[in-house]
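2024-03-11 09:14:02 INFO receiving multi-entity request
2024-03-11 09:14:02 INFO entity count = two
2024-03-11 09:14:03 INFO echoing inputs for audit
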Amino acid sequence: MNTTSTIAPPRPGTLGTDASRPDGVAKVQGGFAFSSDMWAENMLWGATLRSPHPYARIVSIDTTAAWKIAGVEAIITAEDVPGQATYGLIMQDQPVFARVGDTVRYTGEPVAAVAADHPETCKRALAAIRVEYEVLQPVLDPEHCIDGTAPRIHPEGNVLRHQRIISGDADITGDVVVEGVYEVGMQDQAFLGLEAALALPDPGGTGVELYIATQWLHEDRKQIAACLGLPEEKVRLVLGGVGGAFGAREDISLQVHTCLLALRTSRPVRIAYGREESFYGHVHRHPAKIWMRHHADRTGRLVKVESRMVFDGGAYCSTSPAVLINAITHTQGPYKCDNAVVEGWALRTNNPPCGAMRGFGVVQACFAHESQMDKLASACGVDPVQVRLLNAMQTGDRLITGQIVDSVAPVAECIRETAAIPLPPDMESDPNVLDLPGGSGRTADRHHIKRGIGWGVSIKNLMYSEGFDDYSTARCRIDDGVVTLKFATAEVGQGFVMLAQQIARTVLGVDEVLLDTIDTQVGSAGSSSASRQTWMSGGAVDAACRAVRDELLGIVASENGLDPARLTIDGTDIVEVGGSFRRAVVEAARGKRLDETREYHHQPTEDLDENGQGNCHVAFAFVAHRAVVDVDTELGLVKVVQVATAQDVGRVLNPKSCVGQVEGGIAQGLGLAVMEEIIVKDGRVRNPSFTDYLLPTFLDAPQVDVVFVEEFEPKSPLGAKGVGEPPCISVTPAIANAIRQATGRDLPRVPVRPSDICL
Amino acid sequence: MSTPSGIGSENYSLTVNGRTHDVKDSWIGESLLYVLRERLGLPGAKGACEQGECGSCTVIVDGSAVCSCLVLAASVVDTSIVTVEGLGEGGQLSDVQQAFLDCGGVQCGFCTPGFIVAVHHLLESVPDPDDHQIREALSGNICRCTGYGRILEAVQQVAVARRSK
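2024-03-11 09:21:47 INFO inference complete, emitting structure
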């Protein structure tokens, strides 16, 4: 770029720079307190007894033998829940404990909980509780909930949501028609930091304080307080350090149990799940079966998309309705398409409950539409990149819901930028064994290896949809020159704590920004999910800081006989535009107390009508992925060599953080493409461990080459879009398409297993 | 830590980060990870899989990197144990810890202590690793947030800096 003007580099730690994490030093030294590290004097351990059956009636529960074990301090069941017996994010349909006479609806459903003086004592107590079950025939096929052949397994029925979308001319056809049936397996969020909480009872049992790793403190509090039968103000939640979330901490898991045990024993209680229990303790990504048919003209231009999506929600509702709506409203992908007929079902079965996971619903839809785009390219005899560019959505286009895309929509630019990233070199003639599919210890043969290149492009809605006002709150204080921010935004690893400081440094012109405890002593921040916190809580922090800044400038103006409208902050100084006044912000703020709290609300959205029409989403982000894979066609092993990506981010607020989100998301999408699946058979998880549920390791991680497409998003308070979810969405079909290209196989299902390739 | 009332009372000592700690009234089945975290006030090592798959609990026992979740605490008396809390001198960050911060190798941070210990161990045995050696040596440490890219950069950076010393 040729320019004669000089632009000063941004001040360290402000927006646009690689600021440091305020929790970073504690995290590398091992001193950061995760919720599993919380400890209190006189603390007891809690543990949960779970159903071994996917569907059974509880005939009786006998705790006599368990009570005889020395060190057992409490045993609680459904009878001991003083408040509401059930909870849930959308539908309160999930029992705190399954009740005698009622049914357990999935393998792993809580039946009782104990508190004791040692984890081993807890284990022995659980083993001593006798539960008599009348085993029932489980409903395992969601199709049986649609055709009505399944018995009703819950008073609320077996249909969690049914929604169709009819757009434009439903009967129109195209010269070229491609279709397929696609399946996505059940993926686990597999955060490293297992579920854990510490509950501290108030004297007299009048209230409780809970240290908890969660995505949304206030929503947790609402549900917990209802089940405890306590007013919300008597339930105080403090964010315990969160070891990753990815959607798995949106729902209640051990929160109510921990509080109940603490209130019952009048002692602090910690529950910490192990890995196996964690697989039963949180919701997973919905397994989905998607039929999709595209009509296009001979050049590949889309005419109509048709789809039927069936999502297995498992035993309880969780966020299934929202996941389904995300899926069906993203059927068209990032492509212009006027006509659509889509039907979506989210159903209740006796499989493990499913809910939010990074990219919720859109991941499943994207695997189908991107598989279809390659089929369409092939049917029309055009290049897969060409067919995507031809149909690329732009700002102002109308979605199949009737909503106009008013977000910045650089779809074509994402595709072109990705295509411009150099391909990796060909495999060496004598490659390092670690570079071969399967890595060391396998027997991949250089001569059986074929390379493939595949594409995936996606659109992802940001924030919550369908009329939900998921606002965020933040408070900014200046006390004698010291700036402190307060918010309830769950820091789950994404780095919001760092971003909040960057915003304050930028707006207020101070270098040091303190962060108050993240807890429920301030208004809700909404959930750390749906790629929303940079936009929403970032917007709230920005607004609170601006309010304090304006107030400070007003005071400084009146103190110095200046026009406040002429004062601004330049670096770390307050300056008068066109005048000579200049004073350090810290100096000017000395002796002053300013305190402002602001809420940020996104633009209102609407419910969908019966034909799936309505402005249901807030905003959208886009991304393109190109994957290069080496496949050993004899062994069915895959090595992802490179993922190139260009992502629409609005504006990069922290380059290092953005890269981290992209690389991390790609690893999770790679996992879904080739290795990660919870195997459920007869309603039981067969691989609830890290030995059997495979996660991408260092050796599986591909080279990632990333370009950020920066076009300031005017709707966003900071001009930035959420970057968390898009990286993990279209990388999965990009890898699948690359394997298809290498092998010539149809591969309608992810994860692609070795047997799908070589048998 | 309260004494478990029904399940035994073993007494022994462990040497961790150069200091001798007495373990009293413990259950014989406690893992080294449990004892470090729950009895000795050293929560840096993390538990995430209980079967040696994820590396979050990595500590050094007599110079070898081990998964402390798989080691019975009572079996490592008379050894020298180093945890993440024992790295870096006088509360200062080690070069590895600093590089993780500089390169963006930390997100949620749960895997980080295990990684830090494993990287120290790697660089002591292989001072100048190539990317393949780094990837293989750290393939027993799972990170769910970063996709490993920034961690790779951190390790490369330390190796280069140590080489130029």
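2024-03-11 09:21:48 INFO post-check: The beta strands of chain B are 10-16, 19-26, 58-61, 64-67, 80-82.
2024-03-11 09:21:48 INFO post-check: Chain B touches chain A through 64 residues (CB under 8 Å).
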